[in-house]
Specification:
CATH class: Mainly Beta
Shape: globular
Keywords: Repeat, WD repeat
Order of helices and strands: EEEEEEEEEEEEEEEEEEEEEEEEEEEE
CATH superfamily: YVTN repeat-like/Quinoprotein amine dehydrogenase
InterPro entries: Ebi-like (IPR045183), WD40/YVTN_repeat-like_dom_sf (IPR015943), WD40_PAC1 (IPR020472), WD40_repeat_CS (IPR019775), WD40_repeat_dom_sf (IPR036322), WD40_rpt (IPR001680)
Radius of gyration: 18 Å
Number of strands: 28
Number of domains: 1
Strand order of the largest sheet: 1-28-27-26
Organism: Hufsiella ginkgonis
Strand content: over 45%
Pfam families: WD40 (PF00400)
Number of helices: 0
Largest sheet: 4 strands, antiparallel
Protein name: WD40 repeat domain-containing protein
Length: about 300
């Protein structure tokens, strides 16, 4: 693989915790320990504007597929709903008293799921923004959510090192997957939903067979916490990002390492923890954010 750094965008004054592609091609949003959610252009590689202010640090952003909405999960536990057409916050969902760490939607059900430090998941209607359901998942923090809409599964990664898999239709427990030794910090279903990938503070990347809910492979992927896992939108590979200040690119077919993006390998990458990554569907760029307050864009040529 040939990896080329396209841009390095400053602007944030504090660490960036999350990044999310817009429903509109070429636009991304970032947020963190700053006072607002920021909009960037990947076409021009530049800052556009601060979309709106926030009251506390933002840990999660989620642009709802098929709707002009973005959900914002804050440290306070509040979830803001921003309407792109009205260009304002149209609802504030107040239920959790502790931070909301992840947000995902179930499009077929028109619902929004929120994972919190209080150990529960809340389910909200995307029609009227009312609380539909709430259920306990762990005794402590639920850190991350992954949704598999075709197989009707939703997985939650927890601070107690467990992965809890639920039925997406009625939110009944399917199974719990032990294996990690420290908190689970990243989860992602493969595009064909055959595999569930998990990353942890134990630096292990685990691949689970969805059909049998059993461990397929365990890989010592990084030196420190794996904070994110993201599959390329069209090509058979995925990326992992870590507190060890590196991004690694892997084959989605045999789970072999294809490339390491790190300072040790000669790349001008983040100097502090890489907290989140995202693929730009329009151009195939990989975008990374971290504690160094920078937004970096990478071009990946898998054929090199």
């Amino acid at each position: 693989m040939l990896v080329t750094k396209i841009s390095e965008l400053p602007g944030h004054q504090n660490p960036i915790f999350t990044i999310e592609p817009s429903q509109k091609a070429g636009i991304i949003f970032t947020a963190g320990n700053d006072k607002g959610v920021v909009e960037w252009s990947l076409a021009r590689m530049e800052f556009i504007k601060v979309m709106f202010p926030v009251r506390t640090s933002v840990y999660a952003l989620h642009c709802v597929p098929g709707k002009p909405l973005m959900a914002v999960g804050e440290r306070s536990g509040e979830i803001g709903i921003f309407d792109f057409l009205e260009q304002k916050i149209i609802a504030r969902l107040q239920h959790h008293q502790l931070p909301v760490f992840d947000l995902k939607s179930a499009p077929e059900k028109d619902e929004l799921l929120a994972a919190s430090e209080d150990g529960t998941v809340s389910v909200w209607s995307l029609s009227d923004f009312k609380l539909v359901y709430r259920f306990p998942v762990a005794a402590d923090t639920v850190r991350v959510i992954a949704v598999a809409p075709t197989t009707n599964l939703v997985a939650f990664g927890c601070k107690d090192s467990m992965i809890s898999v639920y039925n997406l239709l009625d939110y009944t427990l399917v199974c719990r997957l032990p294996g990690h030794t420290l908190p689970v910090t990243s989860l992602q279903f493969s595009p064909d939903e055959r595999y569930l990938l998990s990353g942890s503070r134990d630096a292990q990347l685990k691949i689970w067979n969805v059909a049998g809910m059993n461990l397929h492979e365990s890989i010592p992927a990084h030196l420190f916490t794996i904070y994110d896992i993201k599959f390329h939108p069209t090509l058979p590979f995925f990326a992992t990002a870590s507190r060890d200040k590196s991004i690694k690119l892997w084959s989605a077919e045999d789970f072999k390492l294809r490339r390491t993006i790190s300072r040790e390998k000669g790349y001008d990458i983040h100097r502090l923890s890489i907290n989140k990554i995202a693929w730009d569907p329009a151009r195939g760029y990989l975008v990374s954010v971290g504690d160094d307050k920078l937004v970096m864009t990478w071009e990946i040529d898998p054929e090199e």
